[in-house]
Design goal:
Chain lengths: 301, 93
């Protein structure tokens, strides 16, 4: 696996634009800086840790208590959930949200694009039998284009001989001024599963989403852009997507964040997860040789 | 993966492409960039080179055959090969 930083910089580094570095033992990141934005991505999980458009505030939230350790999930940023979302359907002792977010990915491409944005792509090869709970073969790639918008394409290619079912999500933590004052629009009329009350009966969203308690919902039939309206930061974050009909909205609120222990003091106030996904009824079936793209674009208005 | 051969294409500092084969592509490209003895003469004169494409095959003879095929391609054909990544397929437009 390509973890030698000098070799990565030699093969994929771009002067003043793409630089690989080690931030702690066994934990390496790549920093991207261009005319439009700066960003950092961990090689573990191909996990985007920050994205800051030039002259703007950070759009992605990272916990002040986040730890960066080999094999441990990172609290904040954009965890990649794959090949299942949430708990494994048959075995809850398997890691929640699958194994991609803690695996070491391979860098496959970097490029300074003509419009002064930067492309960086990673790959994770899964060969049948490597993982309990998912004995299939697939190739997973994630392509980021870092600019004044952030574009992500998560591509699953079935390299096995039988069809596979995949659940996936970009579990994005967005930075907000105060979750109690924001609204999310774009989900009006969507049915949702409320994971807080554990009900299997679907409810229906009426109007915008607002927050005054723990919120953990899988919205279905969700294909419209979601917009996080944040009057405190005087900005709107637009989330556009393709090939995803489910959106998870999550904030752990007070008690749960205390139990979790790594959100930082009052951290829950400054974040909201709006996750573009293929989850619940929306998991995808991929035939042998075929591929599925989960595509998102984040922009600030 | 280490027992398999790979064909790679690098982009050189003058914008030209160079195609080669290796078992450990990243080490080989590092040699092109850093090692005056082991680098190819072509890449040594066009540093730095950056990896833009690689393809896995099972054996050295398959790799050599595919390398020959790619080396015969026109610049345009090589660009198509390199650019078949998702961001070039309209998802980001």
């Amino acid at each position: 696996m390509n973890t030698d930083i000098a070799v990565l910089n030699s093969c994929f580094g771009i002067d003043d634009q793409v630089v690989f570095k080690t931030i702690s033992e066994h934990f390496s990141i790549v920093e991207i800086d261009n005319a439009h934005a700066s960003a950092s991505i961990s090689l573990q999980g191909a996990h985007l840790m920050s994205w800051v458009p030039k002259g703007g505030e950070p759009v992605i939230w990272m916990s002040q208590e986040a730890s960066f350790e080999s094999g441990k999930p990172i609290r904040g940023g954009i965890p990649v959930c794959w090949p299942w979302f949430g708990d494994h359907s048959a075995n809850s002792s398997l890691p929640a949200h699958g194994f991609a977010r803690t695996a070491l990915w391979e860098v496959i491409q970097t490029e300074a694009l003509k419009d002064d944005t930067t492309l960086i792509a990673f790959r994770l090869i899964q060969e049948g039998g490597n993982h309990d709970g998912w004995p299939y073969s697939a190739e997973l790639e994630i392509h980021f284009i870092i600019g004044d918008s952030l574009k992500i394409d998560l591509v699953t290619r079935n390299t096995g001989k039988s069809a596979i079912t995949v659940g996936d999500a970009l579990h994005t933590y967005f930075a907000v001024s105060d979750v109690r004052n924001i609204t999310i629009n774009g989900l009006d009329g969507c049915p949702y599963l409320d994971k807080v009350d554990g009900s299997e009966q679907k409810k229906q969203q009426v109007g915008d989403v607002q927050f005054d308690q723990e919120t953990d919902r899988i919205y279905l039939e969700s294909t419209e852009d979601c917009v996080i309206d944040d009057p405190g930061l005087k900005r709107r974050i637009r989330i556009s997507k393709l090939n995803s009909e489910s959106t998870i909205v999550w904030n752990p609120w007070i008690e749960k964040s205390e139990r979790m222990g790594d959100l930082g003091k009052d951290g829950y106030l400054n974040m909201v997860c709006v996750e573009s996904a293929n989850a619940a009824d929306d998991v995808v079936l991929i035939a042998p040789g075929e591929k599925h793209h989960l595509w998102v674009r984040y922009s600030v208005e | 993966m280490s027992s398999e051969w790979q064909i790679y294409i690098v982009s050189c500092s003058d914008g030209s492409f160079y195609t080669g084969i290796a078992k450990d592509v990243l080490r080989r490209i590092d040699e092109h960039n850093q090692d005056d003895l082991k680098a190819a003469r072509y890449t040594r004169a066009r540093r730095p080179v950056r990896l833009i494409y690689k393809e896995l095959v099972a054996t050295r003879s398959e790799a050599a055959k595919r390398e020959h095929e790619i080396k015969k391609m026109s610049r345009k054909e090589k660009e198509v090969l390199v650019k078949k990544a998702p961001h070039e397929q309209g998802f980001f437009d």
